[in-house]
Design goal:
This protein is α/β, with parallel strands linked by helices and about 450 residues long. Helix 1 crosses helix 2. Helices cover about 20% and strands about 25% of the residues. A hairpin with an 8-residue loop joins strand 9 and strand 10. A seven-stranded mixed β-sheet has the order 16-22-17-18-19-20-21. Strands 6-3-2-14-24 form a five-stranded parallel β-sheet. Strands 1-13-8-7 form a four-stranded mixed β-sheet, with no helix packed on it. The protein has two domains: about 190 residues, FAD/NAD(P)-binding domain; about 160 residues, FAD/NAD(P)-binding domain, CATH 3.50.50. Bound molecules: flavin-adenine dinucleotide (FAD) and iron/sulfur cluster (2 copies).
Length: about 450
């Protein structure tokens, strides 16, 4: 059982762009923040994206400076490979129980030299590359990871000891145990972000079964210069795809699968990827099938027009099924909505499903905040206090509160940080513990 060992002003759960921004906004005002990230690196979805709409700026070039700033900030303590197990109100604040998962590597002494990865004989599909590339059983999460520290995947390790032999700092600890720590905080910000709609929700599209039906995060990695192939190739045979289709609303706006809402970013990320494909493969034909295009943000409508001007075919059509044929090519059966519902079939080298966004985390059993009907965290005062949850002192921002793009996530992070700072001032939490206790 853990002792109460630490005290911070705020706990931020989730180290994506939203969590980092909220932590920085609080840290800049002098509040001490504990930022908890379940993965071995901060950065969230954004650090794995290729470019961002509508500017086509390099995503990791924007994200990695925020990652570095968060991890070096005097008022921010970043803890990766950790998960919050419980947050309970106590006095004016909260007690959080946090599990620091076993990394099997001593973080303080690992120097990120990669010598262990080079000798490890075990290849494992790499989650960061959506399992299109491989990593070793001991690995540094990716080239832009922060911290640049190794983590050992005990599920796949064969305990050959090769990594231990070459490690210059003797920091590999095969018998490391997870640790439970407790900390007291005055405010909590939930920024746990998104998963994409599981492919199994739309089995008729063959995602996860057909090699050349791809998820959109995989396409982000394939388009990235540091991605698994270094250029755009299709997974089944490494061929350059010359006929590609996008299927919109593949897991959004669909009551039959319990996801009735619009995921807001899928039209834009699909248009972005389609346009970039036209840049990367000179003779590629890209067709995007949609119910209607939702391009709601600043400069987004212009971006949509540009995409069509640069040769992407945008067709109003509802895709019914996707089937695999010879050569692992895929056939899309589509009902053309502007042509009286006429059904056509077209054969493609590759199909990308524009999957929707679902919450990555549910508070249930960890912190007593209610969820909305759509599964994202409820924000009962959304119009005036968008970051307020149903529990006073716990705030939410970014996709944890509902689907949104990066600019909106950043704005919400600032709002949540402001709300948390206001609360810390009101309850007198920010002063030294003894002074705060005397004030009550
Ligand atoms: C394919 C695709 C392309 C996109 N392209 C663009 C684009 O070009 N432009 C744009 O504006 N938007 C784009 N988006 C949307 C963008 O990804 C999101 O707006 C953004 O990532 C939201 O950031 P976030 O921090 O809220 O969530 P996330 O990026 O999901 O970060 C959440 C973090 O919390 C961590 N976490 C989750 N649960 C826990 C837990 N229990 N404990 C601790 N940590 C936890 C996660 O590991 C993750 O690091 C795209 C989305 C997709 C799917
Ligand atoms: S675990 Fe050892 S060998 Fe591996 S990166 Fe860290 S210091 Fe280098
Ligand atoms: S002990 Fe495990 S992690 Fe280390 S080299 Fe062998 S298989 Fe890889």
């Amino acid at each position: 059982m853990a002792d109460i060992r630490t005290r911070y002003d705020a706990l931020v759960i989730g180290g994506g762009i939203t969590g980092m921004q909220a932590a920085l906004d609080l840290g800049e005002q002098g509040y001490d923040v504990l930022l908890i990230e379940k993965y071995a690196s901060i950065g969230g979805i954004m650090v794995g994206l290729n470019k961002v709409f509508p500017t086509l700026d390099c995503s990791s070039c924007i994200c990695t400076p925020r990652m570095a700033e968060s991890s070096h900030h005097a008022h921010i303590q970043v803890q990766t490979w950790a998960e919050v197990r419980q947050v309970e109100p106590e006095g004016d604040g909260f007690v959080a129980r946090i599990e620091r998962k076993a990394r099997y590597v001593d973080e303080d002494t690992c120097i990120g030299c990669s010598k262990c990865e080079l000798v490890c004989p075990v290849d494992v599909p790499h989650e960061f590359d959506q399992c299109l590339g491989a990593r070793r059983a001991i690995y540094i999460p990716h080239g832009n990871a922060i911290p640049q520290k190794a983590v050992l995947d005990v599920e796949h390790c064969i305990f050959c000891g090769k990594c231990e032999k070459v490690c210059p700092t003797e920091c590999i600890v095969f018998d490391q145990e997870p640790e439970m720590v407790e900390t007291r905080v005055g405010a909590v910000i939930v920024a746990t972000g998104l998963d994409i709609t599981p492919m199994g929700k739309k089995p008729e599209y063959g995602g996860g079964r057909f090699l050349n039906v791809m998820n959109p995060l995989a396409m982000e990695r394939v388009q990235s210069s540091n991605g698994p192939y270094g250029r755009v190739l299709r997974p089944s045979d490494g061929k350059i795809p010359r006929k590609i289709a996008y299927v919109q609303c593949a897991g959004s706006r669909d009551r039959s699968i319990g996801i009735p809402y619009c995921s807001r970013v899928c039209c834009m990320y699909a248009l972005k990827q389609a346009l970039l494909l036209r840049h990367y493969i000179h003779d590629v034909e890209v067709t995007l099938y949609h119910m209607d295009i939702r391009a709601f943000g600043k400069g987004y409508e212009q971006f949509y027009r540009r995409t069509m001007n640069e040769g992407v075919r945008v067709i109003k059509g509802k895709v019914a099924t996707i089937n695999e044929v010879e050569n692992n090519d895929v056939v899309v059966r589509v009902e053309l909505l502007d042509e009286g519902g006429r059904v056509e079939e077209h054969r493609y080298d590759l199909v990308v499903l524009a999957q929707g966004l679902v919450p990555a985390w549910h508070a249930h059993g960890v912190v007593a905040c209610a969820e909305a009907d759509d599964g994202f965290m409820a924000t009962p005062e959304a119009k005036i206090n968008p970051s307020y949850t149903t529990l006073v002192g716990v705030y939410v921002a970014g996709v944890a509160a509902g689907p949104k793009d990066i600019p909106d996530a950043i704005v919400e992070a600032g709002e949540a940080a402001m709300a948390a700072a206001g609360r810390l001032q009101r309850i007198g939490w920010h002063r030294a513990p003894a002074a705060a206790a005397a004030a009550h």
